[in-house]
Amino acid sequence: MANHSANRVFTLENHVREAAAGDAQARYELGVAYSCGSFGIAIDLVEAHKWFNLAALAGSQAGQEARAELAEEMTAREIVEAQRAARAWLRQTPSEMPEAAHYRLAA
Question: pTM (2 decimals)?
């Protein structure tokens, strides 16, 4: 079980690292993870919207579509929160990027 958890964190760290490098697919997959609970992450629609928005900004058509679909299930306040989070993430330097260990994993 501990090995499985370590693998989830390793995979998540890889996606975050690739997303920080501008990888649209990694950003999209992080959005999927937060919208569906993949990698053992707790479902968080605000965080999912943030990642889909970042994927769309990097040129992902799938990110644009997923962001639009997800927005239909969110309040205006949640969307604003997600947009602020995306802007804040873009302003961070790579050394400030959070490690996967800081993400909420589902129980």
Answer: 0.81
